[in-house]
Amino acid sequence: MALPAKTLVQAAANSGLRAVSVRHSSQAPKVALLGAAGGIGQPLGLLLKQDPLVAHLALYDVVNTPGVAADLSHIDSNAKVTAHTGPKELYAAVENADVIVIPAGVPRKPGMTRDDLFNTNAGIVRDLAAVIAKASPKALIAIITNPVNSTVPIASEVLKKAGVYDPKRVFGVTTLDVVRSQAFVSELKGHDATKTVVPVVGGHAGITIIPLLSQVTPSTKFSEEEIAKLTPRIQDAGTEVVNAKAGAGSATLSMALAGARFANALVRGIKGEKNVQCAYVASDAVKGVEYFSTPVELGPNGVEKILGVGKVSAFEQKLIDASVPELNKNIAKGVAFVKGN
User: Fold this and answer.
1) Which residues are annotated binding-site positions for substrate?
2) CA 124/CA 120 separation, integer angstroms
3) Where does this protein hold substrate (predicted)?
4) Going by C-beta distance under 8 Å and a sequence separation of 6 or more, which residues neighbour residue 138?
């Protein structure tokens, strides 16, 4: 899927489509799903098709999109489904989109870190972002493609080059870390999982994933031993799934749920329903790092307010401090990739 940006943009130009973006009405949101035929894309498409707020679901991938679209179009919900296959049809997929969700890329296998995916997935995100910059520069972009700590800066640098960057509109989806934390905490403490809230800050890989167990709702006390076991389990939960699938892929179903939940939050924000979600965004919440995940308030313009990390424990502050050099390394790698290509 890693086609050169020039190829994708030229294909869009050759299609005769105008490089003008007009946002859809908030009453009829269009969501574009890029990587719709993949392991995350298919269940994510299923969940988005069921979202009553989505008016138009545009599915894009380099292969197999028509079959996925035909299947989803038979579901009796109101979202219109369109199929777009290959670089010549990418422009139409994202044109006028309100929200663009990107799970496109290759998954992890046992023994791989998220950073091992960089060479393939960095090119995919760069090339998709180049067309989004032309076709739908006002869209809210939710990036799932790993390594998120690097792919968000990659997309941002592409948009900057095109002169259309708005830091309020580019998101790294860290919702899966929140979902996992809430599942694990509710299981450990006997809480109702649907009413348990655990903020997760930092980034979306290894030691940059920082669950704020001191801020759990409902108010919950943890022993030092519980914190010492739960924190690394949350940080390494993705590897737990990769190893359990034994080479057959990474987290797809839980990631699809998390992606759909975040996309729904973005659409609700566009429609004027402000809500708070954790997301990896351009932020000044933590000194010394340009991108950081914290709770943010979402609204019609994307990020309406960065809420910061709040009051944290001494243990959590140490984790935040340790995450900064790792995040800076990931961010620098993404920026260098765009500037060197």
Assistant:
1) 108, 114, 146, 180
2) 7
3) 108, 114, 146, 180
4) 21, 23, 166, 169
Does the predicted TM-score (pTM) go above 0.70? yes
CA distance 294 to 103: 21
Which residues fall in the annotated binding site?
35-41, 61, 108, 114, 121, 144-146, 180, 255
Q: Which bin fits 96, alpha (ψ -120 to 50), beta or left (φ > 0)?
A: left
> Which residues are known to be catalytic?
204
Q: Answer whether 164's CB lies under 8 Å from 137's CB.
A: yes
Task: Give bridge partners of residue 200 from the DSSP assignment.
Answer: 211
pLDDT value of position 20: 43
CA distance 36 to 40: 8
The two tokens of residue 149 are: 């700590």
User: By C-alpha distance, which of 57, 25, 18 is closest to 41?
Assistant: 57
Low-confidence ranges of the chain (pLDDT < 50): 1-22, 24
Q: Where are the alpha helices (DSSP H) in the chain?
A: 5-14, 41-49, 65-73, 90-94, 118-135, 148-161, 175-189, 224-235, 237-245, 253-270, 314-339
pLDDT of residue 192: 98
Domains of the chain: 30-173 (3.40.50.720), 174-340 (3.90.110.10)
Task: Enumerate the known binding-site residues for NAD(+).
Answer: 35-41, 61, 121, 144-146, 255
Per-residue pLDDT reduced to its tens digit, 44-103: 999 999 999 999 999 999 999 999 999 999 999 999 999 999 999 999 999 999 999 999
| Spatial distance between the Cα atoms of 49 and 58, rounded to a whole number of angstroms | 10
